[in-house]
Structures are given as C-alpha cells and as structure tokens.
Structure prediction request, 326 residues.
Amino acid sequence: MIAPDTAAPVASQEPIHQGSFWLPKAVSTLAPGVDNAWNIVMWVCVFFFVLVIGTMLYFMWKYKRRSENDVTSNIDHSARLEIAWTLLPLIIVMALFFVGLTGFMNSAVAPSDSFEIQVTGERWLWTFIYPNGTISPTKLIVPKGKPVRMVMSSKDVIHSFFVPEFRIKRDVIPGQYTSIWFEATEAGKYTLECTEYCGQGHSDMLATVEVVEPEAFKQWLESGGEDKNMPPAKRGEGLFAKWQCGTCHSLDGSRKVGPSLKGLFNRDETMNDGKVVKADENYLRESILVSNAKVVKGYEPVMPLFKDTLKDDQVDALIAYIKEQK
Ligand code: HEC
Ligand SMILES: [Cu+2]
Prediction:
C-alpha cells in the first residue's frame, strides 16, 4: 500500500530579490557586464583612496616640523615619479574605457531575433503594446531566456525606462523612438521605474515587470491577459486598477489630480465653460474615451485619451463600475 502523500506542495513563494550590499540582484544577461565594470571602477577608487590618503597621513607624520630649526631641504621634482603618475592613470583610464565600450556595444544592439514590444510613457502611466495587439498598462510581461526589445516613445514629456535588476536605463522621449533590450535570466517580479522627473505623479510612475516561462508567456499573450466572462462591474474594477485610474481618481470623495468618482453617476457636473452636464452613461463614455472633450470645472485636462486603447466592452465595464460608486 502506498502511504498517502502528506507533504503538501510547498506554496511557491515570491522570490526575495536580494542583491549585494551595493547592487540589486542581477537578472539579465547584460547585468554581469555592468556589475563587472562597476566593481572594477569601485575597487580602483578604493585602492587609490587608500594609497593617497595613506601616503598623506604618513607624510604628515614623517615631515612634521619637530623643532625650531627643523627645515626640510628644498625639494625640486622627480621625473620618474611624474612620468609614473601620468602614465599609470592613462593606462587605467584607457582600460576602463574599453570595459565600458564593450558593455555599451552589447547593450546598444539588440539580437536580430528579439521579441519586440512597443512602450508608451505618458504622465503617469506606462503602456505596453504587443505585436498581436494585446495592450497591457502598467504590467510588462516578458518571457524568460528570450531577448526582448523595447521600442519606446512618450506622449508628453521626457520619461525614463529603468529596471534596476536588468541594469538597463534609457530615456523615453516625445516625438522620437528610443530602444533598449534585455534578456531576463530568472522568473519573478521586478519593478520598472521612471527615472526622469516628470511632474506630480512621477514617483507613482511604476510598472511591474513579470518574467515568466516561455510557455506561460505564450498563453498569456494569446488570451490578451483578460477574463471576459466576469460580471461587468467586477471586470470594471479590474480595469480601473489595471489602467491605474486610481492614481488620479479617488472613490471616497477626496480630490486628487482628477475629481473623485464617488456619487458621479447622474450628478450634475459643471464644466470649465460654465455649462452643466448630467453625468449619464454617454457623458461617462465620452469622459473616459476623449476626456478633454468636456473638462470638469476646476481641473486641468491632463487625463490620457483612451480612445485608441480601451475597447467598447471595456468602457462598458468601467461605466458599470463607476455607477456602483454611490
Ligand atoms: C493622469 C490622471 C488621470 C488618469 C490616469 C485618469 N483620469 Fe479621469 N480625469 C482626470 C482629470 C484631471 C479629469 C477632470 C478633467 C476632465 O474632465 O478632463 C478627469 C475626468 C474623468 C471623468 C469625468 C469626471 C467628472 O467628475 O465628471 C471620468 C468619468 C473619468 N475621468 C474616468 C477615468 C477612468 C475610468 C480612468 C481610467 C481608465 C481615468 N479617468 C484615468 C485625470 C485622470
Ligand atoms: Cu515619468
């Protein structure tokens, strides 16, 4: 008889991404090169710091004036020393240049078989568009062990794409494409940060980078990352979180960058041109898709346009959710 398996499967735990004292954990094929360069520069600095400060302290002690007539003879110069401290740093600096250059070349040119993802930065949202049309806001899902190339652009100001664990960083600029690539070496969740100050919501301009096994990635991509068989309001709640509407809209009546959505449905809203509009379904739909068509009095027209990114059924779900915020 076979004993029942009592050992419950160990729940898969979020890996703790522990790096070294100096650097975060390294999770891309580019990371070792960057860390290597960083370590070399650091230890060269440590070596010269100790050498220079140590020599200084020693000389302070050695050449201290010990009595009234303790006068050191006039020291002229030493050709040997001067050549040494000119040539040696030159050699070191040239060596560092080549370490940096190789790393730069590796990170600048993506392998030709890279998987391409379109990245849009805007105040204060990252959006990722996959080749099959799947749109994923604030969540970048990528396969493990495959080179991925990001083609990036901004809708407003300069942002910057930075994933510390991958050791990659590149500015995201309006009216121009920049690109960056990486190959993740370990499944897990990491954080993408915007590292170019872009206004009030800058510190919230984060996205999750999720590295998954290639099989899981394929499945996720095919499903478009969404379950369509949920009740509309429930689905709307998910979309509200996914698209980070909550960065600008509270649900408890408090004012953020945008008006609170609490009690909005069927309320009379005053626009900045003085007109009063009833917040019915049509108004909500227009507010979500082309927010600047009517701008609520007392607010700036800073809400992103969602007409190219949200599908009809998604807008329906969001409206159902807003209606529930009584
Ligand atoms: C960057 C901040 C920002 C984000 C993100 C944002 N909004 Fe807005 N939203 C605003 C601002 C500001 C206004 C008021 C100005 C205007 O009407 O355009 C507004 C207005 C609205 C209105 C009309 C509110 C009223 O009181 O009449 C609705 C509805 C709305 N947003 C829904 C959404 C939904 C749904 C999302 C997510 C898909 C979203 N917003 C994301 C900033 C934002
Ligand atoms: Cu930014």
About this structure: The longest helix spans residues 31-62. The chain has a mean pLDDT of 88. Residues 115-223 form a domain with the Immunoglobulin-like fold (CATH 2.60.40.420).
